[in-house]
Write a structure and sequence with these properties.
It holds the Pfam family CS_DNAAF11_C. The protein is of the alpha/beta class. The chain has seven helices and 15 strands. About 25% of the residues lie in helices and about 15% in strands. It has a seven-stranded mixed sheet with strand order 1-2-3-4-5-6-7, with helices on one face. The termini are far apart.
């Protein structure tokens, strides 16, 4: 999808904002950091800050090195993570000692020869550029820039130079051929990316800019690593921030529209849900419900709210809702809530509005013998004492068994 956004410019206000350490004076500024500002062009710095010794422009969208020729005292230039495809326009930087071009899109390796005039240059970083994949890349740069002491953070030794010098004549011819192939592939890539952008734009053309589907489509799409994609991603992110700021939203908080919490069905029946994901135990007793909620031990009780209603109970823990629907109505005015000081668990007891009947047998005096008159009347009342059923006379003596007379088991 196409993302239209105004280009970020280098303004006097921006430079003064970044020069607080120099009391907002930019004429005598020696160090300037303009990283991660989505800047798309280098301008004005050479006119306003001629005393600069360190200039940091990493993580922007700069496609070309330009308008730096007045910085005669500049010693360190960092333009890593930009969209630069060629090294140029740095010949006038007489004091330049360190140049960082990490993670750009430089495919024209022979453009490093433009740095021969920078006789003070000692360190060069090209890591992450397409040209570093060319066979003989390091040897070529070592011979092309004899003043270098370090390349990509690695020291250049005398033996490195001797070995590279033997390969240089044939090496340059091969690198020129690889550059030509890279340019062809780069032209084809521009066409593919543009076509992909147009297709994505057509698929979401009818959606409003703040629609979640538009953002989802953009970030889930497959894209190629190229300057056009980086520009589009940066502008889309900047535009989303501007829309959020205009609407007074906090980017660190989730959008309420993305997830709508529903506590009740359309018919009014409460849902059961556990947003804080706490463990719990629920007991259905004949006369009451008991909910044992395993609240976090060290959570302040002031962050927990309990609400018992006739057909549900709701516990809000740090803004997250735990709600449980009940099968029977409860007596809300008699419900209690207690929390353990040892485990932190919370016990909610909710008496039922219509408890189940509990039949309790009354304790009665139980006679030792059966009342004959009651037996004759047609029924027994109370338990029967089986010990007196086969009672004998006092003259009858129980026959004692002689264990010697019992035969052995076979």
């Amino acid at each position: 999808m196409a993302v239209v956004g105004s280009m970020v410019r280098i303004t006097e206000q921006l430079i003064r904002k970044k020069s607080e350490h120099n009391e907002l004076i930019i004429g005598t500024l020696e160090e300037l950091s303009l990283h991660q500002e989505d800047i798309e062009r280098i301008e004005h710095i050479g006119h306003w800050c001629r005393e600069l010794k360190i200039l940091l422009l990493q993580s922007n969208l700069i496609p070309r090195l330009e308008n730096l020729n007045r910085l005669k005292k500049l010693e360190y230039l960092n333009v890593a993570i930009n969209n630069i495809e060629r090294i140029e326009n740095l010949e006038a930087l007489e004091a330049l000692q360190k140049l960082d071009l990490t993670l750009n899109f430089i495919g024209e390796l022979t453009s490093v020869e433009s740095l021969r005039a920078n006789y003070n240059l000692r360190e060069l970083f090209l890591t992450g550029n397409p040209c570093t994949d060319y066979p003989g890349y390091r040897e070529y740069v070592i011979i092309a820039l004899p003043q270098l002491a370090h390349l990509d953070g690695k020291e250049i030794t005398r033996s490195d130079r001797l070995l590279a010098a033997k390969q240089f004549p044939a090496l340059r011819e091969r690198i020129v051929q690889l550059e030509a192939l890279h340019k062809i592939e780069r032209d084809e890539q521009r066409v593919r990316v543009q076509q992909s952008i147009e297709e994505q734009e057509a698929s979401v053309r009818d959606l409003p800019d703040d629609d979640e589907r538009r953002a989802t489509t953009f970030w889930q799409q497959k894209s190629e690593h190229c300057p056009e994609t980086r520009i589009q991603m940066a502008k889309f992110s900047r535009r989303a921030k501007e829309q959020a700021a205009a609407g007074g939203k906090n980017l660190d908080q989730p959008d309420d529209r993305k997830r709508t919490r529903r506590l009740f069905a359309e018919c009014g029946r409460p849902y059961s849900l556990n947003e804080p994901r706490v463990n719990f135990e629920f007991r259905d007793e004949p006369d009451r419900f008991e909910l044992d909620l395993h609240v976090y031990k060290y959570l302040d009780t002031s962050l927990v709210e309990v609400d018992a209603q006739p057909n549900y109970v709701r516990v809000t823990i740090k803004g997250k809702v735990f709600q449980l629907a009940l099968k029977q109505d409860i007596q809300t005015d008699r419900s209690t809530c207690q929390r353990s000081q040892t485990t932190g668990h919370m016990l909610i007891v909710m008496p039922k509005l219509n408890p189940e009947r509990i039949v309790a047998l009354a304790e009665e005096k139980r006679p030792n013998k059966v009342n004959q008159s009651q037996a004759a009347g047609g029924g027994l009342k109370g338990p029967v004492d089986i010990r007196s059923i086969c009672g004998g006379s006092s003259q009858t003596k129980q026959h004692r068994i002689n264990e010697d007379e019992i035969p052995d088991l076979i």
